[in-house]
């Protein structure tokens, strides 16, 4: 199965294919737009370099047609994250070997100064539908994930890796041309591509694109587009649940939402409030393993694992008994993991002795249901995105009054993590001034901005001088040191006032 196969199946389809705001493109029109993108890419790409093209854009129709154009031309689309800044974003462009980047006008300034051409994103002139031969194992996308220790890794996503979940989920949920798939999660992430966009394409359904997710706009969009299916990640689902309820919330066409990392209470409330079925799964961009809950799955569980997925002791590699926490490992091989781009060290870390190591911790109950228990590596999960701590620490250490910095996660009240930093100071520092300093750092994205800052005399360390972050994370804000807090979307900090013990 290739994405080209799915596109060709829609080439003569006169039914609505892609909707966006007040636009509507039939599938036949959209595939012609993909053909135009393919012809343009064949003219623009140099044959002496990898055929990689970056995209820096919101969920707009041209994102969809450019991905289709890459499939039809044998090219590779690199999804760039517009929340990254400065050298961090430039590094992603260089690592992924982009010959050029298509960018919406609002994001083009983020690429200023790069020695890579930047072109406006749009639909080129129509061209004949002339797909190049491709195989399921051919590379189609590079999707970045922050990884375990800092800098993002580019995950290799083949035709099959995108087409298969689209076809599988469309079949599993009985989706067809009478359905509308609502995609509001960002398309530079795997969730939107594999659990949303590809599902709509495989089903021949209408794909309704939302430029950027909006909690208040979710239900109006569902009604406007007649959406019957939507994909999600946990925090946005929580945001929708947090909107003020109305008596007619369940009066909508939505019948199914599918995603991952939803908080248990939100899953139940979302289904009850909006009158739909919620299916929560567990997986990663890498695709080495995946879970999906079944009706008999206990609350809070991931479900039962696929054949060969085990929980093993990270030290011995032996299977863990029920209730003992260990690492999730695919003992049968890589699963859908096709490797990282230009990162053999990371490949070797994932694949050891023929096993795929997730870096995620879990435990099992007596009935064989698995439960997520945290992350083996140094990960933060903020608003549905994996963040590494090392890049944040490097930014904090730029301040002349910061001598040491450790970044770690503390539980978010709803789901995932909040970013917390512990600082050892070498000079004067006040909350307002520090917030202003961080706001002016060009490579610190909004989700990387610490929610809490702890001012410590020293950091806990091992005998080999490594910071014991698990101790800091365990104490969280309940420590004897002063803690600064940043409310909402503000960039300024204030002293957190805690009740006396």
Descriptive notes:
The chain is an alpha/beta fold. It has 3 domains: 3-212, 3-Layer(aba) Sandwich (Rossmann fold); 304-375, Luciferase, domain 3; 389-495, ANL, C-terminal domain (GMP Synthetase, Chain A, domain 3), CATH 3.30.300.30. The protein has 13 helices and 26 strands. The strands form 5 sheets. The protein has an 8-stranded mixed beta sheet with strand order 2-1-10-9-11-12-13-14, with helices on both faces. It has a 6-stranded mixed beta sheet with strand order 6-5-3-4-7-8, sandwiched between helices. A hairpin with a 2-residue loop joins strand 20 (379-382) and strand 21. Helix 2 packs across helix 3, helix 5 packs across helix 6 (190-203) and helix 8 (234-241) crosses helix 9 (264-274). The chain is globular, with a radius of gyration of 23 Å. The model has no long low-confidence stretch (mean pLDDT 92). Belongs to the ATP-dependent AMP-binding enzyme family. Residues 18-341 form the AMP-dependent synthetase/ligase domain. One of its GO terms (biological process) is long-chain fatty acid import into cell.
Give me the secondary-structure topology:
Elements: H1 3-8, E1 16-20, E2 23-26, H2 27-44, E3 52-56, H3 61-73, E4 76-79, H4 86-95, E5 98-103, E6 118-120, E7 139-145, E8 153-158, H5 159-172, E9 180-183, H6 190-203, E10 206-209, H7 215-225, E11 229-233, H8 234-241, E12 256-260, H9 264-274, E13 277-283, E14 290-292, E15 309-312, E16 326-330, H10 344-350, E17 351-352, E18 355-364, E19 370-375, E20 379-382, E21 385-388, H11 390-396, E22 402-411, E23 417-425, H12 431-439, E24 452-456, H13 469-475, E25 483-485, E26 494-495
Parallel strand pairs: 1-10, 3-4, 3-5, 4-7, 5-6, 9-10, 9-11, 11-12, 12-13, 23-24
Antiparallel strand pairs: 1-2, 7-8, 13-14, 15-16, 16-18, 17-18, 18-19, 20-21, 22-23, 24-25, 25-26
Helix pairs in contact: 2-3, 5-6, 8-9
């Amino acid at each position: 199965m290739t994405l080209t196969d799915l596109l060709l199946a829609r080439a003569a389809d006169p039914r609505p294919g892609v909707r966006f705001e007040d636009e509507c493109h039939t599938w036949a029109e959209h595939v012609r737009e993909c053909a135009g993108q393919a012809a343009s890419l064949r003219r623009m790409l140099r044959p002496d370099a990898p055929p990689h093209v970056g995209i820096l854009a919101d969920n707009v129709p041209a994102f969809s047609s450019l991905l289709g154009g890459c499939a039809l031309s044998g090219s590779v689309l690199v999804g760039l994250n517009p929340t990254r800044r400065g050298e961090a974003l430039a590094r992603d462009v260089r690592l992924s070997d982009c010959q050029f980047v298509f960018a919406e006008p609002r994001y083009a300034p983020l690429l200023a100064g790069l020695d890579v051409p930047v072109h406006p994103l749009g639909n080129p002139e129509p061209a004949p539908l002339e797909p190049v031969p491709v195989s399921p194992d051919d590379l189609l996308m590079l999707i970045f994930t922050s990884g375990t220790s800092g800098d993002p890794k580019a995950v290799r996503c083949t035709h099959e890796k995108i087409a298969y979940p689209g076809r599988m989920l469309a079949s599993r949920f009985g989706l067809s041309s009478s359905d509308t798939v609502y995609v509001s999660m960002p398309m530079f992430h795997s969730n939107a591509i594999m659990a949303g966009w590809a599902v709509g394409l495989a089903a021949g359904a209408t794909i309704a694109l939302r430029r950027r997710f909006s909690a208040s706009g979710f239900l109006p969009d569902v009604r406007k587009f007649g959406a019957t299916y939507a994909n999600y990640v946990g925090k946005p689902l929580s945001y929708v649940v947090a909107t003020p309820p109305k008596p007619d919330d369940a009066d909508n066409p939505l019948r199914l939402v599918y995603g991952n990392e939803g908080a248990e209470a939100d899953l139940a409330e979302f289904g009850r409030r909006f009158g739909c079925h919620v299916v929560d799964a567990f997986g990663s961009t890498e695709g080495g393993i995946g879970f999906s809950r079944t009706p008999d799955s206990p609350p809070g569980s991931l479900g039962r694992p696929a054949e060969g997925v085990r929980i093993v002791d990270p030290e011995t590699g032996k299977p863990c008994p029920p209730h003992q926490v260990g690492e999730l490992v695919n003992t049968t091989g890589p699963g859908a993991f096709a490797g990282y781009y230009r990162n053999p060290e990371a490949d070797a870390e994932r694949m050891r002795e023929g096993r795929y190591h997730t870096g995620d911790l879990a435990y099992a109950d007596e009935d064989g249901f698995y439960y997520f228990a945290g992350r083996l590596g140094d990960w933060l999960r903020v608003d549905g995105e994996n963040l590494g701590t090392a890049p944040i620490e490097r930014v904090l250490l730029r301040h002349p009054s910061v001598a040491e910095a450790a970044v770690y996660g503390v539980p978010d009240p709803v789901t995932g993590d909040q970013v917390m930093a512990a600082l050892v100071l070498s000079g004067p520092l006040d909350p307002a001034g520090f917030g202003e300093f961080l706001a002016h750092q060009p490579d610190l994205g909004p989700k990387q901005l610490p929610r809490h800052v702890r001012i410590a005399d020293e950091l806990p360390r091992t005998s080999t001088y490594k910071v014991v972050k698990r101790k800091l994370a365990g104490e969280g804000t309940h420590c004897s040191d002063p803690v600064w807090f940043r409310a909402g979307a503000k960039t300024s900090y204030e002293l957190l006032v805690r009740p006396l013990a």
